[in-house]
Write a structure and sequence with these properties.
Layout lengths: L1 E2 L5 E3 L4 E5 L1 E2 L11 E5 L5 E5 L15 E3 L2 E5 L5 E6 L5 E6 L14 E3 L2 E5 L12 H6 L5 E5 L8
Antiparallel strand pairs: 1-4, 2-3, 3-5, 5-6, 7-8, 8-9, 9-10, 11-12, 12-13
Length: about 160
């Protein structure tokens, strides 16, 4: 369950590709680093982020999304959404967007439409075993969240 699991985001104007990685062998102590930016032409690492300040680094099963200046990544462990500065990888915004009492993180890609960020929370794998933790997570209620793009000029 490690490595690049979901779709990367590409910014042709800055010649960057952004992606996140799955946790690896242990979801609670994911392989490091977890979010990456590469030069689109050379493949060289531009930046890598291992952990938001004061937190344990978290991996992602979600596609990485990007808009000019921002990289958007969901969390594998909890319904958190993180926005990174596309230039240097610094964490600009890190918030819980779903119900933290339910199982699962954010496994859907975020989209931005006219300054509104839309993303679903929830994660899981349906199996024949109703006691399987992934099956329980897949059947837990999940949220669709709409918010103005944090840090955007018109966002309060």
């Amino acid at each position: 369950i490690g490595g690049v699991i979901a779709t990367a985001a590409v910014d042709e104007a800055t010649r960057r590709v952004f992606f996140s990685t799955g946790p690896g062998e242990d979801v609670f102590t994911p392989q490091q680093p977890t979010v990456h930016a590469l030069d689109l032409d050379s493949g060289e690492v531009v930046w890598q982020n291992t952990a938001p300040p004061g937190q344990t680094a978290d991996a992602s099963y979600a596609p990485t999304s990007a808009v000019p200046g921002l990289v958007i990544v969901g969390s594998a462990l909890s319904p958190r959404l993180r926005l990174y500065d596309a230039a240097d990888g610094s964490v600009l915004w890190d918030e819980v967007i779903g119900d933290p009492t339910t199982l699962g993180g954010v496994a859907s890609g975020a989209v931005v439409v006219d300054g509104t960020l839309l993303v679903g929370s929830g994660i899981g794998f349906l199996s024949r075993d109703p006691q399987d933790i992934s099956n329980v997570a897949a059947n837990s209620p999940s949220s669709l969240v709409a918010l103005c793009v944090p840090l955007a000029p018109d966002c309060p």
